[in-house]
Amino acid sequence: MEGKYTSYGKFLAVRAQRAALRVVLRPLMRWNRLDDPMPGYSIVIACHAHFARMLIGNLRLLMKQDLSDLDRVIICFDGPKAAELERFEQDAKKEFGKLNILCVHQSNMQSVVLRKIGWGWVDCWLSYARGIAASRTRWVMLHDMDAFLLQGDLIATRFERMKQSGANFMGIRWYEGNGVERDDRLCYIVEMMLDAQFLRRRFKPLDLFNHVCRYKGRSVDFDTLLYPQSVSGGTEVMPMEMTRWVHPSQVISQFTYLKNRPVYVPPESNNLFFIPYFLYLSDDRKILEEHRQALAKADGGPVDFLGGKMDLSRFSKTHFDWIGQQVRRLEEAVAGGVRDEVQKYLEAVGRLAK
Asked: How much is the pTM?
């Protein structure tokens, strides 16, 4: 058997597990057709409720974009309403009035079910589905909370290209992995623009969820939003040069693993080090120094980090060099150069790289 699953038995087992999960998820989310959309586009951000404040630095860079066609920014939290999230919403609306922010939360029922499932991709699916359902515009851009846009014309030029292309989905690159090949021409979800009117007319929210099936003779495990692309087409790629944005990827998913395991061993591409820095960009001045001190005391065993324990045995000098490059690029954009406390934090991180 070709694709992700080389064993037919394994493929059937995972497919059965996913089918059972879909039965549980089906009643949690519905949407209506979008028959009379407003002009412009919406930005949907899926946000980990634990790190709502981390969005502040992201939104400050978003404010520097050409947003002349923006309707509103829809922030979708992976948890129900809470006092801290309401305070964040008040502060964000006060500082970022130009973004016309709408905050969307999980219902109590959704939160109870998803906490029992305990799989971050389910929260990702629900956040994006709720954001697309809340859009008043035909065009929607999915924006990651750990993606920082450095040049002010990025969104405007992508929006114009999306309108002119007639595509249903426009990504920054073609998806590869989990049995999916580049030649399949399915868009990577990060910073994707999509046609919400088409999606809400043609598909149900559950169709966006991860999907195990056979595709072009291969076994595949489609990530969020890949299945609708595979059956409808209308995909296009407009690359986004890495010098124009900073996006570590998997920051929040790695944090979820950190919190749920006694000692988490991150992969070689350990991006958890970005979280104290991103919070620093959002005005939490203490957290960077606290974690610098914790890293400076590390003696080769697990390190206390963000409330969990992290084993750095796989952390490489190569990946540290990449982290430093991304941080310096972001520092240039927000501060004109690397600040002393950031440099000291990077030195503490680099000391632990193998």
From this structure: 0.94
State both tokens at 14: 């995972």
Distance of CA 15 to the CA centre of its chain: 25
- Return contacts of 216-219, CB within 8 angstroms, 24+ apart: 216/184, 217/2, 218/2, 218/3, 218/4, 218/179, 218/181, 219/1, 219/2, 219/3, 219/4, 219/5, 219/11, 219/179
pLDDT-derived band at 194, boundaries 50, 70, 90: very high
Tokens 């595709």 -> residue: 215
SS3 string, 94-140, reads HHCHHHCCEEECCCHHHHHHHHHHCCHHHHHHHHHHHHHHHCCEEEE
The tokens for 279 are: 């919070």
Phi, psi at 186, each rounded to 5°: -110, 135
- The CA distances from residue 282 to 54, 83, 100, 214, in Å, are 6, 19, 19, 44
Alpha helices (H) in the chain, listed in sequence order: 8-25, 55-62, 83-95, 108-117, 120-134, 154-165, 196-202, 226-232, 251-260, 274-281, 285-296, 317-335, 340-350
Q: Is 237 helix (H, G, I), strand (E, B) or coil?
A: strand
The two tokens of residue 164 are 């002119």
d(CA 261, CA 242): 32
Whole-angstrom distance, CA of residue 162 vs CA of residue 166: 7
Give the type of residue at 128: Y
- Contact by Cβ (8 Å): 315, 267: no
pLDDT tens-digit series, residues 339-350: 999 999 999 999
